């Protein structure tokens, strides 16, 4: 469906002509969206391009304004020009309709503002007061330490009414105590149903299809338990280093930055019980039960159940790559850039089934996938070799899709020769066209007031409750992270972690 043409009003708002509106898409309410941290990488690389795509697809359909708020200085029109450049870069050559882009950029404004001080707040309040009664969305693309102060200033200036919503980027805090303090401070200003703690992995198409695959097909749910599944692997691997996030990352590390949110959320979606509905709280209630069922990993278990690593100089994309100490300028840094661990969900469905989680930077490939390995057949009637177990592989990135690995007879004469082959469903080939980015889906859910794909307060705190003992165990052991060469699959200890159990990491090429 083609996007409806837009008209620009004198106020810099965008309006769609009533006579050409598609009938299948509801109007979004008139809104103002303020991006705190509006000059950051997240804003220019993800948020603004996602908002433009939503607009060009006809999903953003009411009058709206977008404000970037940060300390940087811009000449008049400079922020809008930077926004245009970021969108054109994200969309690629010829990917952005220039008329629609010009119309979208008309709605983009900038307010110089000190998130930690007083500068610019009155001016922001004045800008927002020009259009009273709108839904106001405050996207906090800032460090956790700034969240409380921003919410308090919004309340003091009367900018947080019953229609306002706040979006908080992960991680919420850096441990349970700080997360609870942030949640309490935010809760004084924004009700829980108006607080959207975003984890962009939950907006990915394959993650959404995990729910459809499991609960929309009679084939899988009867097998989705310890009787039939041997183990589960969740891998989120990156080939890049810390890059522009060096200062933040050196105080966080992979356990806080990735495991506490992305990987645990994926684990929850694999392990949850069937919810009564897809209503936000029904789904999040079941995720919370999974988090509370995770067996604790304390000091005694951490040495056997976890591995932490840190990359050293090697190669990436065929080019020399620096080690982490060089990237952050600290030879004595003990920050983890790699984590592998074995988790157990202590309930009837998953008793005895290990969940192996792995994430890291500067690894051999960029891949995010969930692998469910089924139990081996109890007895083979075939003479030739071992029968490989079935696997269900859900690829989140790149090349999103689903594969089911089966044993079939190879064509030809010469007896019953079995071969392991995949039933392969690529989203690009099956559905065609452009698939929305995760941020597009999640931003539209914020506009629609649907919190189903966002983390609830008790989820965040339950995740930290499980993560904190691991962190304390590492600190108490006083052992540095295990080094691994950039471009490898991490420390050799991560291989030993899974192979001690008679299993191995799934590292098969997708195509």
Give a verbal description of the structure.
By secondary structure, the protein is of the alpha/beta class. It has 2 domains: 6-169, NAD(P)-binding Rossmann-like Domain (Rossmann fold); 202-378 and 426-447 and 456-499, Dihydrodipicolinate Reductase, domain 2. It contains 16 helices and 19 strands. The strands form 4 sheets. Strands 18-17-16-15-9-14-13-10-19 form a 9-stranded mixed β-sheet, with helices on both faces. Strand 6 (135-140), helix 5 (144-156) and strand 7 (165-169) form a beta-alpha-beta unit. The longest helix is centred in the last third of the chain and has 21 residues, at 457-477. The protein is globular.
Compact overview of the structure:
The protein contains 16 helices and 19 strands. The protein has 511 residues and is α/β, with parallel strands linked by helices.
Classified by CATH, the class of the largest domain is Alpha Beta
**Biggest sheet: strands, sense, closure?**
9 strands, mixed
* Low-pLDDT runs: 1-24
Q: DSSP helix count?
A: 16
CATH architecture of the largest domain: 2-Layer Sandwich
| Helix content bin | 25-40%
The overall average pLDDT, rounded, is 89
Under CATH, the topology of the largest domain can be stated as Dihydrodipicolinate Reductase, domain 2
How many strands?
A: 19
